[in-house]
Amino acid sequence: MLTVQGLRKSYSGIEVLRGVDFRVAAGECYGLLGPNGAGKTTTLKCCLGLTAPDAGSIALAGFSVPAGARAARARTGVCPQFDNLDPDFTVSENLIVYGRYFGLSRHTMQQRVGRLLEFAGLEDKATARLDTLSGGMKRRLTLARALVNEPQIVFLDEPTTGLDPQARHLIWDRLKSLTAAGRTLILTTHFMDEAERLCDRVGIMDRGALIAEDTPRRLIQAQIEAHVVEVYGEGVQTFARELAPRYAQRVELTGETAFCYCTDPAPLLETLGQRSELRALSRAANLEDVFIKLTGRDIRD
Q1: Same domain, 109 and 10
Q2: Would you say 223 and 290 are in contact if contact means Cβ atoms under 8 Å apart?
Q3: Are strands 257-262 and 250-254 parallel, antiparallel or unpaired?
Q4: Cα angle value 23/26/32 (rounded, 5°)
Q5: 21 vs 60, 121, 213, CA distance in Å?
């Protein structure tokens, strides 16, 4: 459904995409991850034909982009990072009017509105004004709007940012139902648990390049020791420097927390049990550990 090869893009002499390559199969949920400024947004804009690349090739839904971008977008849905619904329209009117951008008649949209509202869990809000909706409701409406043209592939830019846990889980359920129905999803998110839960494969970008790509499980197995023990408390700096390396394959001290990466956490936990001034959290390694290892802990603006 999407093939990107050798994608390059520069702004004011600064190369923001440096030969990006990836493919997304039909029915797959592919996560494009990376810190701020990694090049994710520019990549998506190029894929949708909103920005012309300096080099490389893109094929979206069977069409070459940017030459065939208009035809490709007719088969594509987009759920932007920030809701841009029209406050002058009701819930159902937002769907009907948006359908006009795809040349869909009012009759066709009236037939689809019921299914879309059911998908979004907004059946009882068809005539409601937007200012009466919660943030989660607006997000679900934006997702439903991305489906008005019954797209083959849907781009989702941080679809659960700002939502409470209940709303996030509801969005996750809706996204799973889309892939179960054979839709292809391209997902960007800063929530690594979201990517780990939803994505068949993920690509991690940093400084304009794709630096790792695989299933979440295989990336974790290849990049990180099986267990992580997070240690914090009085004297954690000394502990991390002098004692933790005896038990952990790798130790990272960040602020007041020591991250101890272990193949077997038992000896370390036994030692920590004798240190009342220190507290510890033992857990399995996850995709966030991979992300931090590959892109670093420094804040990106």
Answers
A1: yes
A2: yes
A3: antiparallel
A4: 45
A5: 14, 37, 10
Asked if 231 and 168 sit in the same domain, the reply is no
- Name the stretches of the chain with pLDDT < 70: 300-301
What are the residue ranges of helices labelled H in the chain?
A: 40-47, 69-73, 91-100, 106-120, 135-145, 165-180, 192-198, 216-223, 236-238, 266-272, 287-295
Distance CA 217, CA 296 (A): 20
The alpha helices in 59-154, defined as continuous H runs, are: 69-73, 91-100, 106-120, 135-145
Tokens read off for 118: 């059911």
Residue 16 to residues 10, 95, 188, 209: CA-CA distances in angstroms? 5, 35, 17, 8
159 and 245 both lie in a single domain: no
Dump pLDDT digits (tens) for 86-142.
999 999 999 999 999 999 998 999 899 999 999 999 999 999 999 999 999 999 999
Does 66 sit behind a cis peptide bond, omega within 30 degrees of 0 on the bond before it?
yes
Tokens found for residue 16: 């923001």
- Residues 198, 82 share a domain: yes
| Sheet of strand 257-262, all strands in order from the earlier edge strand to the far edge | 250-254, 257-262, 227-233, 278-284
Overall number of domains in the chain: 2
Q: Flag whether the pTM goes above 0.90.
A: yes
Q: How far apart are CA 130 and CA 108, in angstroms?
A: 23
